[in-house]
Amino acid sequence: LTTVLKTKRAVVRQFAEELRRLGGSASIEACVRGYNPLSKEVAYVVCVGDAWTPEARETLYNVKVASAGRKALESPVAIYYDDIGKAKEVRRILEHTVCLWAKRFTVRGVVRGVASLSWNQENACPPEMQETLESLVVQFEAILDAIAALEEVLFRQLETAVLHKNQDDLHRMSQTLAAIFDARHCSLFTDRYGEKKLTLYATSHLPSAPNIGTRSYVFGDRITGWVAEHRKPVSLQNPGDPVELDRVARRHGITEPIR
Q1: How does pLDDT run across 78-110, given as a tens digit for each residue?
Q2: What b/e sequence results for 6-39 when a residue is b if at least 16 CB atoms lie within 10 Å of its CB, and e otherwise?
Q3: Cα–Cα distance between 203 and 185 in angstroms, integer?
Q4: Burial of 85 (0-12, 13-18, 19+ CB in 10 A)
Q5: What confidence score (pLDDT) does residue 160 get?
Q6: pTM of the model
Q7: Quick one: angle between helices 127-164 and 2-22, nearest 10?
Q8: What pLDDT shows up at residue 75?
Q9: What is the structure's pLDDT at 14?
């Protein structure tokens, strides 16, 4: 199960690389962006090409703003612009993009993101190429559906372990999650009594750590509590840097800093 789930990121990367290859030599970037239906935000996942700057890749796009990404999310079929500069209803995503193809993808029937391919010249994607690209998206969706089914099994096991307070199972689950995400360790916290207080239940590197069951954070307190309070993912290069903590909060449009 761990091996299969660890391939998810590789599958997304290979999908983007294949999009770029199919786009031919004039293509400048292939991008996969994830969509969160709760926050209505679209975020960069992986990009093959040099057109996206690091700053652009960190930007969250709200679908309330007119864009090609929003149009693709709303359309059951792929969208295509011979010259996106002439399309007044969308903003240009990248400075050098002239021709754009984009298609939403689903996971188990729910829209989860947009795949896009852009070129630096007009009329770069003839109908037969568009058909091939759409076929690739269908294959990508089938693989993601299979991985989602396995993820559901994993988290059902985790819920069962929490429900029955089985420390051995919880420890194994934390090790599995750490392996999936190539992490040094993984800690599991739960709000056991619905009191908005997270208690450490398991940690992957210590099967019987002395603070298990005693270490806790109230919602909003420090990084762990902030994530629980705002239900936003946080990825930090330097968790001790207050500047980076503030930047992450602003990225999610939240004025309350992480402390």
Answers
A1: 999 988 777 765 555 556 778 889 999 999 999
A2: eebeeebeebbebbbebbeeebbbbbbbbbbeee
A3: 7
A4: exposed
A5: 78
A6: 0.69
A7: 160
A8: 92
A9: 93
Distance in angstroms (rounded) separating the CA atoms of residues 64 and 159: 35
The C-alpha atoms of residue 123 and residue 130 are separated, in whole angstroms, by 11
Q: What is the DSSP string of the chain?
A: -HHHHHHHHHHHHHHHHHHHHHT-TTEEEEEEEEEETTTTEEEEEEEEES-S-HHHHH-EEETTS--HHHHHHH-SS-EEES-GGG-TTS--SSTT--EEEEEEEEETTEEEEEEEEEESSTT-S-HHHHHHHHHHHHHHHHHHHHHHHHHHHHHHHHHHHHHHT-HHHHHHHHHHHHHHTT-S--EEEE-TTSSSEEEEEEETT-TT-TTTTT-EEETTSHHHHHHHHHT-----S-TT-HHHHHHHHHHTT--SPP-
Return d(Cα 179, Cα 205) in angstroms, integer.
Answer: 12
What backbone torsions phi and psi does residue 80 show, to the nearest 5 degrees? -150, 135
User: What residues in the chain have per-residue pLDDT under 70?
Assistant: 1-6, 50-60, 88-95, 162, 165, 181, 192-193, 206-214, 251-259
Q: How far does Cα 66 stand from its chain's mean position?
A: 21
The confidence score (pLDDT) of residue 257 equals 64
Given a contact cutoff of 8 angstroms between Cβ atoms, the answer to whether 224 and 189 are in contact is: yes
